[in-house]
């Protein structure tokens, strides 16, 4: 059997990786543990993204932060739907202002990862596009019974800090894309308006 | 592809002395054909032309180069051998002027190739054929020298690469009836080319200065990386048993020094029957031997290569008599001249070439020759290679790919790859060739590939008779590399050994269908030693009835015609004989014993249907699709289609897979909605009853976004009549919205 021993380069990286949880200044002291993306090393003096979830509202879809990613330079936001609502998919339009750029949450699509609600067909009717700060994502079941929202994230988005020269305390706009109407496909395959609640985003 | 084996014919071509006769047939057996013809050309100018040539040489500027290093006693300071042979691009067996007297073009082109390679790094074969095509009748017959070459090229302003279309050498078969190149300039692809070509010829001072100075002048040119043109006058006795230069060339190895230039001090005695001039290229020297008698110039000839001359070179003694003269009609003329060449051309920075080939499928019928004409945009040198179904075609290194006899095996994909300077940039293009094998061949054994066992028969399907020929020549069937394609062919004529007059006939009986278009074609190549300006020998292609009565003479070939010195094809309509049983006959008559022969091969007698009308399109698949969708049309009469139309707009990018099937691609830019398809040929347009539905992903007319995806998802699984059916989402028009539509959407989103 050939055993793979750690080479000199890997050994040199180990102390650095050990130091990573300490990076990022204040806020959470929990280790960076984004499930599908690599840890991002940020200089201690650099700002991070801080997201405050929106208040709960009946019948609304919401973008909520994955706590472990908050206060880092790589924020993961989950789209959740109104609990108990039957749906076949969502078409989402959302815009991020300066200070943050759309990043990769991991997975087959470069901008969006599928959550735990929808069972995609093959081929999967699932795609996204990013133009400037505008992101559009479509995620639809084909041939599966309607899913019940609320039990988990529909999809996950990622926001990265747009550089390290952004002053701490800068508010970053995150809102539904102007001129576009997000929608979801209900249990009867009829498009319904998707009301999206977005929290507040700032650097710190 | 059944391509013409260029070069092979040079071994059997006719040599007839130019102006004044003097060609002597060499009676030797060669390849079973009978007497062979001497292959090597040289110049035999009239006195007036020779005086004009010598005056031109005298008027050239004198070439001056830095002297070779002085002999300081240090071995490293003295150049003892020099060669620029590596910078001559046209070498090997292809460096063969044949019977033509254009040695001066070959030698001068070698000088130009050395200049291109040394100055600009352009290692490329210069088309001697192109320069030949520029030459007027007087110079074509009398020959020339470096000065004349520079004059023609300066007027044209370009040098053409050998790899251009029709730029390969054809003129090697010219005979005494030829006063111009066999290929007009207009038929040669002149783009790409070396543009603003300005050659300047100069003469080396070798006469009246003594041997040491003469040698130093030539050495200096070579030491400064210029090849030197060597013009010499000598005896060409045209028999290998005599003492002429041609015999010496044939019977000695490349390492042997030609003895003649040191023989005597006054040169030869002029004999009009055997005298001739020749221009060659000094590409190096060697003075390493202690004995000056073994010092020599390395001279590149243009007579091809032999087993004993693998480089096509010979050696000339360095300590020769540079002042040698001879007397012709009271004119005292120098025996030897030495010239060189300076050359400038445009030399832009090499850039990636772009390559194109015929865009649409090329559909041909059997027996119909085709040429795939590749073009390239960019600056030479280029290296070209054609591929058939992914396999490199041996020898197909020109921009134009010629297939004189398309066969069923030639169908498929053709690919032309072109690399730029030093192979650093590569571009390529593809096309398709479809051979329509449905056109019937009515003749049996049309290519003479099968010979019947019975004596006197010419081959299965053909009968033969002759008069005046020895038994060995009575059967005209031959097999070998001289065939136009395959191995069998006919060899008709008097063989130069006949009991005059020689005559004969080859024929085949055939019944023509009552309706249709009948086309008879054949390939013919002629060689002759006749010099009289008269149609002495004839070969007639005739139609006779079954009793031997002449119905029509389709063409009479004669010894004077120069359009069949290379293989050439003639075609004739046999419409008057539809519904009849006739004989297709070749009848020849040679009243003198001077050799004239015709090689005949690859007959074709094909029928096409005159009732063929505009194509019909009965169906197409898929019924709908996005721009870029691959489309197959089914119908009739697609062979020879000129275009596929979309709402009457022609699209030339299509492939005729068969007479009943065409494949194409929906062009970009079509708006969503119905489109009428069509197939166009010379007789009209055929269209189906229904229209193709051009689709779009913008289902709602508000732009292609994920809401369109939502619309597709909402219609998924439906078909016409369902509550959630939405026809625009049926992207492939199959009547349902399913995974195929999802795939199309995702691929084009």
Shape field of chain B: flat
Count of helix runs of chain A: 1
CATH fold title of chain A = Immunoglobulin-like
- The overall number of domains of chain B is 5
Profile the largest sheet of chain A: 7 strands, antiparallel
* CATH fold-level topology of the largest domain in chain B: Cathepsin B, Chain A
Q: With helices defined by DSSP (H or I, 4 residues minimum), what is the helix count of chain B?
A: 9
CATH classification, class level of chain A: Mainly Beta
Biggest interface goes to:
A-B, 26 and 19 residues
Outline:
The complex is a heterodimer of chains A (204) and B (749). With 204 residues, chain A is mostly beta strands. Chain A is built from one helix and 16 strands.
Keywords:
heterodimer, A: 204 residues, mainly beta, Immunoglobulin-like, seven-stranded antiparallel sheet, six-stranded mixed sheet, B: Jelly Rolls, Cathepsin B, Chain A, 9 helices, flat, disordered N terminus
Q: Can you put this structure into words, describing what you see?
A:
The complex is a heterodimer of chains A (204) and B (749). Chain A has one domain (8-203): Immunoglobulin-like (Sandwich). Chain A is 6% helix and 37% strand. Chain A has one helix spanning 8-19, and strands at 49-52, 61-65, 74-80, 86-96, 100-103, 112-114, 125-131, 134-140, 147-148, 155-161, 171-172, 174-176, 183-186, 191-193, 196-197, 200-203. In chain A, strand 13 and strand 14 form a beta hairpin. The termini of chain A are far apart. Mean pLDDT of chain A is 81; it is low at 1-43. By secondary structure, chain B is mainly beta. Chain B has 5 domains: 1-39 and 439-607, Sandwich (Jelly Rolls); 40-344, Cysteine proteinases (Cathepsin B, Chain A), CATH 3.90.70.10; 354-393 and 409-432, Immunoglobulin-like (Sandwich); 616-694, Sandwich (Immunoglobulin-like); 706-748, no CATH class. In chain B, 13% of the residues lie in helices and 32% in strands. Chain B is built from 9 helices and 43 strands. In chain B, the strands form 12 sheets. In chain B, strands 3, 6, 7, 8, 9, 10 and 13 form a 7-stranded antiparallel sheet that branches. A 5-stranded mixed sheet of chain B has the order 15-22-21-18-19, with no helix packed on it. In chain B, strand 18 and strand 19 (391-392) form a beta hairpin. The chains are: A mainly beta (204), B mainly beta (749). At the A-B interface, strand 4, strand 7 and strand 8 of A face helix 8 and helix 9 of B.
